[in-house]
Amino acid sequence: MAASPKTIAFFGATGGCGLSALRRSVAAGHVCIALCRTPSKLEALFPDKPSNLVVREGNAHDAKAVAGCLTSPADQGRLVDAVSFSIGGVVNMGSLSMDDPDVCKKGVAALLDALADLRASWGARGRPLLAVVSTTGISEHGRDVPLLLTPFYRYALHAPHEDKKVAEKRLFASQERFVIVRPSLLTDGEKADKKIRVHVEGPSGIETKEVGYFISRQDVGRWMFDNVLDKADSAVAYEGKAVGLTW
């Protein structure tokens, strides 16, 4: 049975996991609202200009701009059904620093603030399911990456990991519905015939353990769509948990 049409907001949709999830959501007929600093960049990726794709200009760190994407175009008093959040920064491997070391924590703060303001100031209804891309290697419950990768994660990726830790903590402390998606090292190229293994952690610890090296951005987006975004109007098995994805 086909899923009922939903309204989904996208932050970080011009590439990687977010773009993969957006393509599938548009193809499935869901109303998709994407916030972009440069709308023409995303519009160029959809030359057929689908009527169910709304592209808005703005910064995902601006709570007001974020709020403008979180209500249904058909009913401004109703919040979207789901949110795909996949913004991130660029790591300089030479200096082991980031162009913006607070990119994810600021983005999640803007998202949570925007939802709270829409409810408090405008009476917006609904509880969207937030699919938030994070990373493996930051678990508080045990090693979720291969032992050989531990030094690389600890030193080369320290800056982005600290940022994502704060973002995750804010989600766990919120009253929102969410699924944290933690991919292993990201590559390009979808492999639809390759099994995606799922590592599951709840607040009390590891529920299902899977450890791996790589997964593609395209496959992460596909998993997000199939298991979270497309099912946002019903109970989702991974809700309130962190889910590691690897091949």
UniProtKB/TrEMBL annotation:
Highest rank taxon of the organism: Eukaryota
Q: Which InterPro entries match?
A: NAD(P)-bd_dom, NAD(P)-bd_dom_sf, Polyketide_Oxido-like
Domain NAD(P)-binding residue range list: 12-228
User: What Gene Ontology terms describe what this protein does at the molecular function level?
Assistant: biliverdin reductase [NAD(P)H] activity; riboflavin reductase (NADPH) activity
UniProt family annotation: Belongs to the avfA family.
PANTHER family to which the protein is assigned, alphabetical: FLAVIN REDUCTASE (NADPH)
Tell me what this protein is called: NAD(P)H-binding domain-containing protein
- Source organism of this protein record: Hirsutella rhossiliensis
State the organism's lineage: Eukaryota, Fungi, Dikarya, Ascomycota, Pezizomycotina
